[in-house]
Automatic annotation (TrEMBL), chains A, B:
PANTHER family: GLUCONATE OPERON TRANSCRIPTIONAL REPRESSOR (PTHR43537:SF24), TRANSCRIPTIONAL REGULATOR, GNTR FAMILY (PTHR43537)
Keyword line: DNA-binding, Transcription, Transcription regulation
InterPro entries listed in its UniProt record: GntR_C, TF_FadR/GntR_C, Tscrpt_reg_HTH_GntR, WH-like_DNA-bd_sf, WH_DNA-bd_sf
Ranges where the HTH gntR-type domain occurs: 17-84
Pfam families in the record: FCD (PF07729), GntR (PF00392)
Protein name: GntR family transcriptional regulator
Length: 226, 226
DNA sequence: CGATTGTCGATTGTCAACAATATTCTGTTG
DNA sequence: CAACAGAATATTGTTGACAATCGACAATCG
């Protein structure tokens, strides 16, 4: 296993994570990072050689990645990076919107002032980042906002699906939120979600959470058509 | 393995399916059939010996089963049959209800008289089965009804999730539909779904499809409490 | 010339052996 | 007798080798 931070000895001696986890993360990074193209076949042998492991862990990691829909395996032929059609991406947006709605509704239904405070901090931070034109940081904060909602909603399966679908849709590899205008609109939607959560309005939280993602889908379509 | 795509399977020679597929199906059958208890550890060695294969395919099959949430793997410790808490089961019902709503809505939005005819046949058949007190056949027809909707909805990812969640919830292993009264109620709900689909009423189809599953959740709770 | 068949190289599927890790047992000690 | 340390055992993690299969190209036949 190649080691990004040059400590190969330590990593080998005190390895606690199974190799398959390392390989899995590396493969996921390669796929989501665009180092391997959509539809491309993942050659077990060369991957194993690249990472300095045998084919076993590579195979298991590939099966694990199949779970998240990042790759599809064909018998006697190999695993291919999944290629997302526009219809696939739109369906993923819809599914994700449903999950997000449930997660927001669940958070709105539970007490916990600190949760709301954390969310408010994130939304305020995002406004600052927009003002400073720091789009990369905005994406990070945006991710943190949604992850935080998902983490505290108490719906583990829904959360894991939400996260997995998020990775899956990234296969489509199209940055929808570009331009400050989109960011402003996006964070305004965050505020509406937050307001519903703070008000304990379950149904509104569900609707706003879902609409936020459906708007993302709409922006995707506009980006493609315009 | 179904052959939906154009795989050349002309020869009737018995197909040599990859072993991992056989092992996977066998494990799934054992888990869903209750041959191994929830929370029990799956011993790679004894399973491999039982099935007459080596541990490799067993390991891969286990990882594949993790995809459907039927088992959970712990590093250096093995894979365990997933144990579902009541909260887990309820969450799965909610998720499945959402998927079902989307699938029904999608079918309602598309043309195709033969699809509706097939569904109507199934509903009529189920009424006959109720009249004949053939509960086992009813369960089969019920499954066919929902599978058929999922199959023709044109939402592949939603369908696969719906099916996987269906297997997952079976881990809770509690037959909710017992007694003819429940069957009558259940098929009445089927008719409402069908009516909305035939009318092309997308929103009603979504609501009825979702409610049908939420009612199943309600019946589960009533079974447990009463 | 086109289609079919045979062969070859590359790749995946499977296996059994070895290494690392977790669990159980056992004997000792306070 | 309880608690602990360490060995013994069982199980998972990993590996390299071998078998089965697939795709491509060349040879053969009509």
């Amino acid at each position: 296993m190649q080691n990004a931070n040059g400590t190969p000895e330590t990593a080998q001696r005190f390895r606690q994570r199974p190799l398959v986890q390392e390989v899995r993360d590396e493969l996921e990074r390669m796929i989501l990072g665009g180092e391997v193209e959509a539809g491309e076949r993942l050659n077990e042998i060369v991957l194993a050689r690249q990472m300095g492991v045998s084919r076993g862990p590579v195979r298991e990691a590939a099966r694990s990645l199949e779970r998240e829909g990042l790759v599809r395996a064909v018998a006697n032929q190999g695993v291919y990076v999944r290629k997302l059609s526009l219809e696939d991406a739109l369906e993923l947006y819809d599914l994700r919107a449903l999950m997000a709605g449930e997660l927001c509704a669940s958070v709105a239904a539970m007490p916990g002032a600190h949760i709301r405070a954390d969310l408010r901090d994130l939304v305020d931070t995002m406004d600052d980042l927009i003002a400073g034109d720091d789009q990369d940081s905005y994406f990070t904060a945006n991710l943190a906002f949604h992850d935080h909602i998902a983490a505290v909603a108490g719906l583990e399966r829904t959360r894991s699906l939400y996260v997995a679908l998020g990775k899956e849709v990234r296969l489509f590899r199209l940055r929808v939120l570009n331009g400050l205008a989109s960011l402003v609109v996006s964070n305004a939607e965050h505020r509406r979600i937050l307001a519903a959560i703070e008000a304990g309005d379950v149904e509104t939280a569900r609707t706003e959470g879902r609409n936020h993602h459906l708007n993302g889908k709409r922006r995707l379509l506009e980006t493609l058509n315009g």
